[in-house]
Amino acid sequence: MGTRFDPHGLSAAHRTLPLPTRVRVTNLGNRRSIILVVNDRGPFIDGRLIDLSRGAAKALRLNGLGRVEVEALD
Question: How far apart are CA 37 and CA 57, in angstroms?
Answer without folding.
Answer: 13
